[in-house]
Design a protein that fits this description.
By secondary structure, this protein is an all-alpha fold. It has helices spanning about 5, 10-45, 45-60, 70-95, 100-105, 110-120, 125-145, 150-155, 160-185, 195-230, 230-255, 255-265, 265-275, 285-305. The protein has one domain (about 5-305).
Length: about 300
């Protein structure tokens, strides 16, 4: 196997680290800007860094700027809108009583992305990949139970709750967005994968910024004003968000989405390390079992070929 074929692994791990930093920055901004304002920061302040990255990739690599086509634009529009809808659904889950369960079910994105990737892009789903997806998903669910004493009973009984359904739908939209971005990069025929990934990212962030700013101007223009006023604090979140997205898009231009999104669950392990080391929070036996299953899934998807 060529070295390039393995590049997706360190790229995905770096993206997960960057996303952990971005999430921390957004949590800091949420009390100041509100949930929607902090979400806009991800797109608005990430866009300039994405444009700079595209210029660096094309200049340093000697790659020509990719030539978009109708298929590319169709994938990007669908994926960008799906990602916004997914985020909105998660916001609704936050407002629901069963927050933890809804968020846990949103992580079924990993299963759904494997199905969507197979249906729409023809990405292979091997037995090893299916096992990794299953282990990773079960691990995530065990790490986010509502009833820590009876987590499996809670998960099984909760399939029909409003929060669970919203979470599953959110996961479906996130999964479809990931597949759409890979589809967009692949549609740029003849483009090298670094240039294709960077160009797809710039197109997606541009569209999402326009759509979200337009919607917020109609809903509450004061949020947009606050986002611009908080530009200093928002720059780091934008940089980390763009760095994470660059990693996701580049990895998905190389490797099937199911592999990338399964390995991306390592972000949860990073979060638990931060929680344990910095905040000294207790980790239950159930959560430890979930982390063990998740780690097993990450190892399988990394070695599966």
């Amino acid at each position: 196997m060529t070295p390039i074929a393995w590049l997706w692994i360190p790229i995905t791990l770096a993206a997960a680290l960057a996303q952990t930093a971005r999430n921390a920055a957004q949590r800091h901004l949420t009390p100041i800007l509100g949930t929607f304002g902090a979400t806009l920061v991800r797109f608005l302040y990430g866009l300039p860094f994405a444009v700079v990255w595209l210029a660096i990739v094309c200049e340093a690599g000697g790659f020509p700027l990719p030539s978009p086509n109708v298929k590319f634009f169709a994938w990007v529009v669908v994926a960008a809108v799906a990602q916004i809808i997914a985020t909105a659904l998660l916001l609704r889950v936050i407002a629901e009583r069963n927050f933890s369960l809804g968020v846990a079910y949103s992580k079924t994105e990993v299963i759904q992305v494997a199905i969507f990737g197979f249906i729409f892009l023809g990405d292979r789903v091997t037995l090893a990949t299916a096992a990794a997806v299953g282990l990773g998903t079960l691990g995530v669910l065990l790490m986010s139970p509502i009833d820590s004493k009876h987590p499996l009973r809670t998960l099984i009984a909760g399939w029909t709750t409003r929060s669970a359904l919203l979470g599953i739908l959110s996961g479906a939209c996130f999964g479809f967005a990931a597949v759409g971005y890979r589809g967009g990069a692949i549609a740029l025929e003849g483009a090298a994968f670094p240039a294709a990934a960077a160009y797809t990212l710039v197109a997606a962030l541009s569209l999402q910024t326009v759509l979200l700013v337009g919607w917020l101007l109609i809903r509450d223009a004061r949020i947009v004003v606050r986002v611009f006023q908080a530009w200093r604090a928002s720059l780091f979140a934008g940089l980390m968000g763009a760095t994470a997205s660059i990693g996701w898009f580049t990895a998905m231009a190389i490797e099937p989405v199911a592999h990338v999104r399964t390995l991306a669950l390592v972000e949860l392990l990073f979060g638990y390390v931060v929680s344990r080391r910095i905040f000294r929070e207790h980790v239950s036996r159930t959560e430890l079992a979930g982390m063990a299953l998740l780690t097993s899934g990450l190892i399988v998807v990394t070695l599966a070929r």
